[in-house]
Amino acid sequence: MRIYTKTGDEGETGLFGGERVSKDHARVAAYGEVDELNAAIGLARAQEPRDFEDELLQAIQRHLFTIGAELATPDPARLAKALGGPPLGETDVAALERAIDRLDAGLPPLQAFILPGGAPKGAALHVARTVCRRAERGVVGLAREVAVSPAIGRYLNRLSDLLFVLARAANARAGAGDLPW
Predict the structure, then answer these.
(1) What is the DSSP letter of 150?
(2) Of 106, 93, 113, whose CA–CA distance to 166 is shortest?
(3) Which residues contact 38 (CB under 8 A, 6 or more apart)?
(4) Does position 27 have pLDDT exceeding 80, yes or no?
(5) Which of 122, 131, 124 minimizes the C-alpha distance to 37?
(6) Do 78 and 142 form a contact (C-beta atoms < 8 A)?
(7) Can you tell me the distance from the alpha carbon of 60 to that of 92, in angstroms, rounded to the nearest whole number?
(8) The architecture CATH gives domain 22-104+116-173
């Protein structure tokens, strides 16, 4: 399999299922932003300490691939075949909520807005949080044009909250507490 195909040289790309659309189509933008989020989480995972919530972050990356597949596949029959399992659902959203509650319980209550930053791991998680918010906006825009599973929007909304809590927890673990605004 070659890395380059030259089929996108004229500004179009193929969706899973064969349909060709412009590279700036809302569907392509949405799954591209989810892909960027996945890479941002990968960068955060690569920061020390690498074992900090690594299983959770890897599971999230796998969910983001599922979301990308859902967004890139307009044909439900092809999507079911491609996923080989269930699409993202409410149980996945609930798992994020449990992780938020678990991590937040070990942090001091927020008294003010905080500045993004801190230790490298925490700062990378803050960047991933902002990329997640952009991906969520892209999915909301796409959902105005085509049917998108509501679970995807809820997942991304919860994920940005989780990334915020993860950033705070990583900074606390590194001794770099919250810096109030």
Answers:
(1) H
(2) 106
(3) 61, 64, 65, 68
(4) yes
(5) 131
(6) no
(7) 9
(8) Up-down Bundle (1.20)
Residue 8 DSSP label: T
pLDDT at 174 over 80: yes
- Strands 20-22, 12-14: pairing is antiparallel
Q: Residue 51 corresponds to which tokens in the numbers above?
A: 């074992």
Which residues share a beta bridge with 20? 14
Output the CA torsion 50→53→55→56 (10° steps).
-140
Residue 160 CA to residue 148 CA, distance in Å, equals: 19
Residue spans per domain, the chain: 22-104+116-173
Structure token digits, residue 139: 């999915």
pLDDT digits (tens, 9 = 90+) for 17-26: 667 877 778 9
Query: What residues are paired with 14 via a beta bridge?
Result: 20
pLDDT per position as a tens digit, 152-173: 999 999 999 999 999 999 999 9
* Greatest Cα pair distance in the chain: 53
For residue 126, CA distances in Å to 4, 25, 89, 114 come to 33, 28, 25, 11
Compute CA distances 151 → 8, 39, 89, 169, whole Å. Answer: 31, 21, 5, 26
CA distance 164 to 5: 38
Phi, psi of 149 (to 5 degrees): -55, 125
Task: Please state the separation of Cα 124 from the chain's center in Å.
Answer: 13
